[in-house]
Amino acid sequence: MRINLRNIAVLLLVYCLSAMSSYATKLPPYVLSTIKSELPKASIRFDGLVTLPDGTIYLPVLPSNPPKKYVGKIVSTYPSNKKLSQLPEVVLFDSNFAFLKVIKTSNGKITVTDTKNIPFVVKTGLFPQDMLVPPGLVVPEDMKIMMGDLVVSVKNSRVDDIFREHSLINKSDVKVENKIKPVSCLLNKTFLVTALDSKIVNVIPSDTTVPKYTFRMENLPKFVEPFGNDRYLLVAAAGKTYVEVADIEQEVIAKKIDLSYQPSEVVFNKDKTRAYIAVLDDQSIFVLDTKNMTLLEKIKVKGYPKNISLNDDSSAMVYSDRNTGDIYTLALDGTYLNKYVYNASNIAKLALRGDNVFILSRTENELQVVDNELQDIIYNQPLAKKPVDMLVLNGKIYVLCASNELDVFNLSDYSIAAKVIIPGGGFSKKLIKVQDADYLLITNLLQKKYFVFDMKNNSIINSVSLPVVMSDFQLLNRRVK
């Protein structure tokens, strides 16, 4: 599926939309059943907005006075006698729940059907108050009561014309778009590339080296993380006390979630239904339900968490205290047992597997394995200079060193499986696992390159130069238009 991030850029430029309410809208079971039957490819956002792969959008209207008895069937449509699968402009259930289809007029206005086609009982209903409607939506005057406290962007609002390109590249330096043929595992994907000391995020399709779009955050990005089958981005900027959820398909900031503290890091559980967010100035971890986009709880912990990482089944977390270097584990089974493990300085990365914590020590240039119960090192392995990143995958430990070496160890006995020298100079920075493929991407900060690493053969099979510095690098499993 191809997507357009241009209006995501618009809203990240604005970055000051009013906060959405903290609850999520649940569509009634009979509505969900009808959608599943009639529109099996439909996607239902956490605020109740329904979208189809062809771009069709339905706005839910909640009944103000539902009847005492109903069976949950469709009783009328406009045009009349249409099934939901035929995409009518108005759909009314016997419960007075309704859908309004978003349409575009001949002059490009985004609206709904003419008011004369909408039953009066629908006009007495209410749009979900946590819903973000498509930017530029215009509703008929006699439907204003349906908006409640919902803020609606009108056609002349600044959302429509605030977009500007903010590329780090001199356009005069780019004569033609540099098309490339990506390796098969990167077909139809997109890179989100953050540069050093810049508010700009570059959006680069995998078949080119030139950013398709750029978007500017309000401040230096702390993180820009895809989730929800890459439909959403969870974003945070330095100095801000909230995270925002960007809906890529609808090209809007769909929600703002205030934490009251500055978010610094985030990790997701395996299926990305939970996000665990560390903050800078409080001894706590926030838990976000990414299906409903609601905060579940705030976990008080020992120390100020940094280098947060989850174990394989997301039943526990490991982190270090940014002030002391103390390392703790945190049970995520509801008991939230918080246990001291070890103290280390200048930690680059942590991983938790079984009863062991794996530490990348920048000071010692080594991989240290600590037994949680003994609270001591049971194994250490010298590394190349400046270890910066680590992944534990498929029975292997992959350690990337800034001195351009990738070390591969067997998890069973910590024996060395491979030492791979990354060609060229520069400063190796990050490892990224390619989804559903036995490949890693390796970024080089100063060379402005990414390398494709074959995990089966322990070899680098490709490298691509980009015109931007890659401080952070995220992989979207979709392609921009």
Q: Your description of this structure?
A:
With 481 residues, the chain is mainly beta. The chain has a domain at 19-150. 5% of the residues lie in helices and 42% in strands. The chain has three helices and 38 strands. The strands form ten sheets. Strands 2-3-4-7-6-5 form a six-stranded antiparallel β-sheet, with no helix packed on it. A four-stranded antiparallel β-sheet has the order 12-11-10-37. A four-stranded antiparallel β-sheet has the order 13-14-15-16, covered by helices on one side.
Quick structural gist:
This protein is mostly beta strands and 481 residues long.
Key traits:
mainly beta; 3 helices; 38 strands; 481 residues; elongated; six-stranded antiparallel beta sheet; single chain; four-stranded antiparallel beta sheet
Give the termini distance in whole angstroms: 9 Å
| Individual helix count | 3
- If you average the pLDDT, what whole number results? 86
- How is the largest sheet built, in terms of strand order? 2-3-4-7-6-5
Poorly predicted ranges: 9-23, 153-176
General form: elongated
Oligomeric organization of the protein chains: single chain
User: Quick one: biggest sheet?
Assistant: 6 strands, antiparallel
Structural class: mainly beta
Gyration radius over CA: 25 Å
Portion of residues in beta strands equals: 35-45%
Count of beta strands: 38
Q: Could you estimate the helical fraction of the residues in percent?
A: under 10%
Strand-helix topology:
Elements: E1 2-3, H1 6-14, H2 29-38, E2 43-44, E3 50-51, E4 57-61, E5 74-78, E6 90-93, E7 98-101, E8 103-104, E9 110-111, H3 120-123, E10 190-194, E11 200-205, E12 213-216, E13 221-227, E14 232-237, E15 242-247, E16 252-258, E17 263-268, E18 274-279, E19 284-289, E20 294-300, E21 305-310, E22 316-321, E23 326-331, E24 338-343, E25 347-353, E26 356-361, E27 366-371, E28 376-382, E29 387-393, E30 396-401, E31 405-410, E32 416-421, E33 428-433, E34 439-444, E35 449-454, E36 459-465, E37 472-476, E38 479-480
Parallel strand pairs: 1-38
Antiparallel strand pairs: 2-3, 3-4, 4-7, 5-6, 6-7, 8-9, 10-11, 10-37, 11-12, 13-14, 14-15, 15-16, 17-18, 18-19, 19-20, 21-22, 22-23, 23-24, 25-26, 26-27, 27-28, 29-30, 30-31, 31-32, 33-34, 34-35, 35-36
